[in-house]
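If you are new to this repository, start here. Below is one unmodified record pulled from the training split, so you can see the exact layout before writing a loader.
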Amino acid sequence: MKEKILDLFTRETLETARANNTYRSMRLMETPESSRVKIRMPDGTSQEQILLASNSYLDLANVDELKHAMSQAVLEWGTGSGGARLTTGNKTPHQELEEFIAKFKGEESAITFNTGYMANVGTISALCGKNDFIFSDELNHASIIDGIRLSRAKCFVYKHNDMVDLERAIMEAKAEFSTREMPAENSAASAFRGLIVTDAVFSMDGDLANLPELLRIAHESECLLMIDEAHATGVLGKTGRGLAEHYGCAHADVTVGTLSKAVAAEGGFVAGKQQLIDFLRNKARSFIFTTAMAPAVAAAACNNLRYIDAHPERVQNLRENVKIFCDALLHEGVNVVQSPSAIVPIVIGDEARALKISAALQDAGILIPAIRYPTVAKGQARLRASLMATHMHEQLQIAATTIAQIINDCL
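And here is the target side for that same chain:
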């Protein structure tokens, strides 16, 4: 009986996804991630593609010195960690990585997690509880949303990048708080506790959070501010240090990031004050109750961050490529805006049309996925182009021309 129920439920779900053009499958990439890759095609052949779909924005995964450094780390430290960080898993590479993250981000301290997803989930659920309030941008990543759900805090979702709506939400929360029966005097729970949380770069639109205004609002409302720099580290600012460097302003109270995108390794991190990091080390369940990342991976992430630190021209090359690509698309009549990040969304609208265009582009040797519901809102399907520092200018011009032609052909 259980098998029949499972079969019915999963079949109906998959059939609905196919009917709505939201069914997902995986491509097989037969070469390492770089600006050009080989893809296994449906007929079983391999085809070289210009890759405009990678989060490896600085293309560090194929830098020879970094590959050799990681191989040496495996030989020195082995293939696994053997335990959680609080038992036997804490090794020298983990500590060196956290020290360099703190230095790179200009913070007192840092803590690493196995993924950026775990960093968000663990941090939010550690900082907030059922009596607290969280203010979340409506376009925040799923890991932020899941962290909020786990915290059980009261969540107010404010309109995307709308600071007026954020201030309204905070006022509404404070009004609600004022009606609550207060706990015992001198209890920490007797004070209003609010957390504003936002992506730094929004992964489907490529636009930026307004950090200066968020800092002002957080200060005036006595809320904590947390930003997720998954798509900002290695991308924003003159040297890739993120949103604060981009704006030339102070940092958020809590800065989360990932080591799997521009840094081209694995893991996530939180950077901030020493007391915050000590707190997370003792309270973040996704840190405490998991085996540590392999020491060789931690060593690779640290080496890659040092490479970014020593090669700011890589960040500048990425910025130049984004401008060239956006200008070329606009010249070809494609409706895009000049992206401040490495992400260039080309909104199509209809899910089926977006899939058709993406498939035609792949046949033409350009890999850009169609992003559909539920990743974006219904009717907002798009091609999500993401660029690398190593794309050649000629590649970007060819891609822009081909994209424009195929979009017009698929009207």
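Two things worth knowing about this chain: The two ends are 47 Å apart (CA to CA). DSSP finds 14 helices and 13 strands in the chain.
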